[in-house]
Amino acid sequence: MPLVKDGALVADAWTRIADDAALPGDGAVTVSFKRWEAERSSLLGRNAPVGVFLGNTDPVEALASDLNRIGVVMLDFPKYTDGRAYSQARLLRERLGYRGELRATGNVLRDQLLFMRRSGFDTYEVDERGAAGFAASMAAVTHAYQPATNDAGMLLRRYTSARASGAK
Q1: Half-sphere exposure of residue 155, counting CA atoms within 13 Å on the CB side?
Q2: CATH architecture classification, 3-140
């Protein structure tokens, strides 16, 4: 699937490995949470980046002690009405302090891009047909009124900073 990051289509450096497939000797891989639990020590011992794919019912807190060694966490949107991945993203970013790549996968819709970005997602696996439009939408909304995980474009913060520095 096409991958969008920072408003551009980018190559995906990660290979998703099925639970019953052998791990390659090198290269960045992502595994399911189930496999992560079963093979954690050997995965962390690899001489290559490792990522974890979490389903909606997988506990993000179980990754807390290893987040500094996990290169990507993929969160699933199985259908557009299921928003549990938003909560998982906020937990990872705000409570657990995860700073690595946070990827939205599954039923990732352009209409929900702003919510995903403000929850902490920074990459998006998108449908092939709408990839270019999704990438273009990244630049459409650059400001927000309320604080969130990603406050970079928050208008009130920009306004108060400008007033404090004496700018008009």
Answers
A1: 6
A2: Alpha-Beta Barrel (3.20)
